[in-house]
Amino acid sequence: MNSSFILKRGRARSLPLFFLIGAMLLASGSLWILLRPHRVLLVENITKGVEIFSKPAVPGDNLWIVFVNSVERLPVADHFVVNAARELVFEETIYAAPYAGYVERGTEEIVAPLTVRRHSIGEKMKDLTFFAAYTFRQMLFVNGHFVDLYDKASGGDQIRIRVKSTRRLPLLLERFVPHGDKDL
Fold first, then answer.
1. CA–CA separation, 116 vs 140, rounded Å?
2. Is 63 part of a structural domain of the chain?
3. Both 23 and 48 in a single domain?
4. So what's the pLDDT on residue 183?
5. Same domain, yes or no, for 10 and 54?
6. SS (H, E, C) 63-107
7. Per-residue pLDDT band at 142 (split at 50, 70, 90)
8. Cα separation of 85 and 142, whole Å?
9. What are the DSSP calls for 5-74, one per residue?
10. Does one domain contain both 25 and 44?
């Protein structure tokens, strides 16, 4: 037999095998990307079923909630951080109060007259819920940017903040596949 014929015949068989292996790797990589968990920092109005704010959860994301305590009418600032495992962690609270305080964990530090900072709390939060205030409205800051809660919420509405784990495939399907009438 001619050796050049065997060489050509071997190349002819190896080329489709190369493309088949490449296609399988591409398909498995795409499936992995579509099915792996995707975590989103989500602020939602539970009462009205409306999303107020969302962004991909990245380790180091900062979330500050600033409000006036309803009993003493004194300011409070709570600080939450998304950790490396993409979980919401209650990190510190700063409050002006003439007594021992709201939270007993963490390291206490006096930062001004009658103003206490409790830091290094490190409490993991599955989610954080509170009621939107009527008079003294809460302010929410995500990575230093103001998020207007009251654009989609009013006094008395329940607000939930959480890191939601979802898959990319349902997100893509929701975006590209028509669902028809949602009232059905």
1. 20
2. yes
3. no
4. 41
5. no
6. EEEEEECCCCCCEEEEEEEECCCCCEEEEEEEEECCCCCCCCCCE
7. very high
8. 18
9. HHHHHHHHHHHHHHHHHHHHHHHHHHHHHHHSEEEEEEEEETTTTEEEEEEE--TT-EEEEEEE-TTT--
10. no
Same-domain check for residues 42 and 103: yes
**Total number of domains constituting the chain:** 2
Domain around 96: 38-167
Q: What is the pLDDT of residue 79?
A: 94
Torsion angles phi and psi, residue 74, rounded to 5: -120, 150
Residue 160 · residue 51 · CB < 8 Å: no
Q: Are 108 and 93 in contact (CB under 8 A)?
A: no
Residue 183 within a domain: no
If asked whether residues 143 and 130 sit together in one domain, one would say yes
Please tell me the predicted confidence (pLDDT) of residue 137: 84
Q: Do 82 and 157 lie in a common domain? A: yes
Across 4-13, 39-48, 96-105, least confident range: 4-13
The strand pair at 158-167 and 145-147 is best described as unpaired
Enumerate residues 6+ apart whose C-beta is below 8 A from 153. 45, 47, 48, 50, 52, 132, 159
